[in-house]
Write a structure and sequence with these properties.
- The chain has 939 residues and is mostly helical.
- 67% of the residues lie in helices and 4% in strands.
- The radius of gyration is 32 Å and the shape is globular.
Length: 939
């Protein structure tokens, strides 16, 4: 905690404390609060923001975020307009109920910038306990902030249970498991010393007075049973009989630590008078622990605050600054769980009588034992209100509970569909289960199609692509006659699922069916034409694919925000027919629109596609920035298909650069995290990149083994475009260098056929290059390499151009023509060095030395491309995020605009700019823009 506070004061840090109840997480947060108030390392006292999750508040949108930020609402007016509007909408401070939902990521950025503004004055410490009970929308904002604290003077500490599914937060931010006390610390705690009490942070001095001393053998048993848990240790010790404390009667091991605590507390609760037990149930059921609201609820239940006095005297509840609260959060659940059903209903009914709005609806629902349309309708209104505030997690929970209370099956199915839709937007994994429940209870074909369509979309992004394809096709078939437009769109979505599942012929087929159902002038026609064009290009039917993509352009483009995924697919398809400028233009439009409108749902996929294109045309520094950001978004949004794709693109870039360890780690991670979901295209990508990496380091037999698998998968999956993943020339070259000339010739024949079918210059050049390696005479080799270089001149690909020069020079030297080999070797070496292709540059340098030449910087040839080639070494100094910042500034954005577009704070942009200027040796934004423009990285 000390390190966190120091790091936060110096430039931002976050930490998750996790462990079992009572282990000491709250005590550590209390310690941090005391240190923050006193100031650390001689600094001024920090601004302290503190909140904790309450189980009954998990359904209230942005409840915890409001507790943290509302005292500083005056700072909202300093935020950029979109961020202020989104944040105020989330916190119910403004906005028209008729307005569409605000953007949740703009609200996240607004919250981050409020903390950054506070940090301008003095360090900020944010402490949030019981993260597992924080409402989902506030959790999302807190984790968003935690991942982006790099230059703000903000320390964020979160406390959470170990058993509440917090694997995501534990993986995405630094985490520490809080363990139990040692035997010596347990003895100190039980001795009632001041130090021991500080460690536990629990129960008052009154406990020590009634706790008996314990024998050493008993202490050892207490430590073993409690596991060093301070809360458990003190509660178990306080319940010992005198005989047990002296060791004269054995301690009975409970089935679990939790049952021992529950039994100890239950005994004390049961000993309370009846009014006190009833009042405890009201306190446990309520959201507020403040005296005013609590008094009203107790009065509605026929009780008073005085009824809680016995519980306070026993230490079960304690006085707070403005009311009463449980001694430990676990007691709230225990009290509710042990209360008879009638007492719980009475408590919730009393709370409903003194509440309004969504809170009233939830209390009323909790007091309703069975189906009740009026209560369900009230919860549906609460769900709509939560949706308007972009609190999709809370909206999903409200729809789900409303469905439970809905008597009519058709209406119940509709509310389950709404619940699942909002669950998808919130990132909750519950959506598929709710969809399947809804399908079972509705006979309506249109409703079933809508549910199956949503379920198919969920499975596509989750990586269960085969199941997604089946659901989407079945849904389309169900409404093909009654609603052809919906069927058209469902089949278009099935196209994407089929491609990801590795069934390209099926993707072409359903895309053709989708187009057949599209109206001549409707917007769905552009969608279908684009998807069909992309599928045809992937299948190797490039002339037909181009025609479809051209038709889509003539028909008119969709909205780059709403239809971002289609823009990305179109950009990818154009790049696969070597129309790189056209494809890049579409991708740039989609990325910049997404950044401007904070539409990040598909941003990870779009950035990954652009990164793959940039890798192909030699803009490797730019590709690294895009692909790193793509992976981060895919991880945050739980999009396993995109995680797999981004990892492949990064692994390919690392293979080209010669970072074999990172390449193999990314492949291993993709297989580990995504392999079980059956993403059919994954192994096609991964074997290709492992083969390329092995080839780069001269491991030719391993390369051939991997790439033979890639070829088999390409044929099996119907991938007829050799540039989807350019593996065939790698496979043929691996066989040549491994001494398998016959097999290399067979692979070249396949590649030549694909080059003729597709008309792709890059495939033609690659095939001619390998023909040159196989040539038996200098004249034959010269003709082959000449044809390869001529084909390179019709496309953009500096790395492949340099590979052709390297192969040509190797053959020339083999035929004892070292002088002729020097010029191509010098050009190849210069290109590899500009790109940062380390193993290839090493090979070229070795060949050049053997040919008697000296390294020189040669001018780029016709196929060397432009891009960041000449700037590669300079720009490679930048981290991926620094590169993205430099790109935003070069587009003319100011610091605030750049921060908003990259979802970081203004201070982070300023800190990155300082490092960028130093690394690139520039002094102004103009110099930076000039540098990136020269590298063709500014549009």
């Amino acid at each position: 905690m000390d390190d966190l506070l120091v790091a936060g004061g110096a430039g931002g840090a976050a930490l998750l404390l996790w462990g079992e109840p009572g282990i000491g997480k709250t005590a550590l947060l209390d310690y941090a609060a005391e240190r923050a108030a006193a100031g650390t390392a001689g600094s001024a006292p920090a601004t302290l923001l503190r909140a904790r999750g309450i189980e009954t508040e998990t359904v209230l949108p942005f409840a915890t975020l409001g507790d943290l930020l509302m005292p500083y609402a005056s700072l909202f007016r300093e935020l950029p307009g979109a961020q202020r509007a989104a944040l105020e909408s989330c916190l119910a401070l403004g906005g028209d109920p008729a307005d569409p939902p605000g953007n949740p990521y703009a609200a996240c950025m607004g919250a981050l910038n409020v903390l950054a503004a506070l940090g301008d004055e003095r360090p900020v410490v944010v402490l949030v306990d019981d993260l597992h009970w924080v409402d989902p929308s506030s959790q999302r904002v807190l984790l968003f902030i935690a991942r982006r604290l790099s230059s703000e003077r903000v320390a964020l500490a979160l406390g959470s249970r170990e058993d509440h599914g917090e694997s995501g937060p534990r993986r995405s931010i630094p985490a520490v498991q809080v363990g139990g006390l040692t035997a010596e610390e347990c003895a100190e705690l039980l001795a009632g010393t001041r130090a021991g009490a500080a460690v536990a942070g629990l129960r008052g001095a009154g406990d020590a007075a009634r706790r008996p001393g314990v024998a050493p053998s008993v202490l050892a048993d207490l430590v073993r049973i409690s596991g060093g848990n301070p809360l458990a240790l003190r509660e178990i010790a306080s319940g010992l009989t005198e005989e047990q404390a002296r060791g004269e009667r054995p301690l009975l091991d409970p089935p679990s630590l939790g049952s021992h605590l529950e039994r100890a507390w239950a005994t004390r609760i049961d000993a309370l008078p009846d009014p006190a037990r009833r009042a405890l149930v009201v306190l446990a059921a309520g959201r507020s622990t403040a005296a005013g609201p609590l008094r009203k609820a107790l009065e509605a239940a026929g009780l008073s605050l005085d009824a809680l006095a016995p519980a306070e005297e026993d230490g079960l509840i304690t006085a707070t600054a403005d009311g009463l609260d449980f001694h430990h959060p676990v007691l709230r659940a225990l009290v509710l769980g042990r209360a008879p059903l009638a007492l719980r209903y009475a408590a919730f009914q009393a709370l409903a009588e003194v509440s309004t709005g969504p809170l009233h609806a939830w209390y009323r629902a909790s007091a309703t034992p069975g189906p009740d349309e009026d209560t369900a309708a009230a919860l549906a209104e609460a769900a709509l209100e939560a949706r308007r505030r972009s609190a999709f997690g809370e909206a999903a929970l409200a729809w789900r509970r409303a469905a439970d209370l809905t008597p009519d099956p058709a209406a119940r199915a509709g509310r389950l569909l709404n619940a699942a839709s909002d669950a998808l937007l919130s990132g909750s994994p519950a959506g598929p289960q709710w969809c399947e429940e809804a399908v079972r209870i509705t006979p309506d074909p249109a409703m079933r199609a809508a549910i199956q369509g949503l379920l198919g979309r969920m499975y596509t992004w989750k990586g269960e692509t085969a199941q997604a394809y089946g659901l989407l096709v079945n849904a389309a078939d169900a409404v093909r006659d009654s609603d052809p437009t919906r069927a058209c769109l469902l089949l278009a979505e099935a196209t994407a699922a089929a491609r990801l599942d590795g069934h390209v012929p099926a993707a072409v087929r359903v895309a053709e069916e989708s187009l057949a159902l599209a109206s001549e002038s409707g917007p769905e026609r552009w969608y279908s034409l684009t998807l069909l064009g992309g599928a045809l290009v992937m299948a190797g039917r490039t002339a037909e694919g181009r025609a479809m993509l051209e038709s889509a352009d003539r028909h008119g483009a969709g909205d780059p925000v709403r239809d971002q995924q289609v823009y990305a697919i179109a950009g990818q398809a154009w790049s696969r027919v070597e129309e790189f400028t056209r494809g890049r233009g579409l991708l740039n439009t989609a990325v910049e629109s997404a950044r401007r409108h904070s539409a990040v749902g598909v941003l990870g996929f779009t950035l990954a596609v652009r990164g793959e294109l940039e890798t192909r045309i030699g803009q490797w520094a730019s590709a690294r920035g895009d692909l790193t950001e793509a992976l981060r978004w895919a991880e945050e949004l739980g999009q396993l298909t995109c995680v797999s794709y981004a990892l492949y693109c990064l692994a390919r870039l690392e293979a080209l650069r010669g970072d074999r360890v990172e390449c193999e780690e990314h492949v291993a991670r993709a297989r580990r995290e995504c392999g079980a979901y059956g993403i059919g295209c994954q192994e096609f990508h991964m074997t290709a990149v492992l083969g390329l990496s092995a080839l780069a380091y001269g491991d030719h037999e391993a390369a051939a083994d991997q790439l033979e698998q890639t070829l088999s998968l390409a044929v099996e999956q119907g991938i007829g475009n050799p540039e989807v993943v350019p593996f065939a020339a790698d496979l043929a070259e691996a066989h040549v260098r491994a001494g398998n000339a016959a097999r290399a010739g067979e692979v070249v024949v396949w590649l030549e056929e694909r080059a003729r079918e597709t008309g792709l210059a890059s495939a033609e050049a690659a095939a001619a290059r390998v023909r040159g390696l196989l040539a038996g005479t200098p004249e034959e080799a010269e003709a082959c390499f000449g044809a390869a270089l001529k084909a390179h001149g019709r496309t953009t690909g500096p790395f492949d151009w340099a590979r052709t020069l390297l192969c040509e020079a190797e053959v020339l030297r083999r035929h004892r023509r070292p002088a002729a080999a020097r010029a191509p070797l010098s050009s190849a070496l210069a290109c590899f060095e500009r790109l940062g292709a380390v193993p290839w540059a090493r090979r070229a340098a070795s060949e050049l030395a053997a040919a008697g030449g000296l390294p020189t910087t040669a001018p780029s040839g016709a196929g060397s491309g432009s891009g960041s080639g000449g700037m590669g070494g300079v720009l490679d100094q930048l981290t991926p995020q620094e590169f993205q910042v430099s790109r935003a500034i070069a587009r003319g954005l100011n610091n605030t605009e750049a921060a908003a577009s990259l979802f970081v704070s203004r201070k982070t942009v300023e800190a990155h700019l300082t490092r960028i200027y130093r690394k690139l040796k520039v002094r102004s934004r103009t110099d930076l823009t000039r540098l990136l423009t020269a590298a063709d990285l500014v549009d």
